[in-house]
Protein: RimJ/RimL family protein N-acetyltransferase
Amino acid sequence: MEPFVLRTARLVLDQPTPADVDDIARYCSDPIFEQFLTTPWPYKRADAVSFVGQYVTAGWAEDQEWTWAIREGDGAALLGVVGVRLEMAMLGFWLGGEHRGRGIMPEAVDAVAEAFFERTSHPTLHWECLVGNTGSLRVAQKCGFGFTGTEPGRVLGRNGERSASWTGVLRRDDDRTPMDGWPVLF
Structure:
């Protein structure tokens, strides 16, 4: 698949480039990544080089995973990454620490979900995060995913095991408004 660009009211989602490597390495060194994501740890610049030069490009070329850089305009600095693993119909995302809490990720996820349903025949898009990742949970809830429970995750952790995960699903015909049934977190 040839990478394609998505645009929202304030964001541009395009393919990560070598110019993004230093930002990726800096963002992925945040301790929250060790706790809640499956990225290598400790995260090194070489991991970001491999991510951009191999993982992202192979995912697009093999039509296995679509991965976008999130930016606030054409050519702007990278804010985070969002992608979907097509075989699993699984959404994944992260945002650099200083960009969290601004409504960026729900806007990016909405664009990706729309593109996913327009360009595939999958009836559902899945989401999961490790239990305790309240930021990810709030994004999925805001984007209209329905909470499906706490269970072993489908995405293997760094140790190769399935960790306790919060899970959700967005159906092709869902109206994308927040649904009831999510854990109440204080």
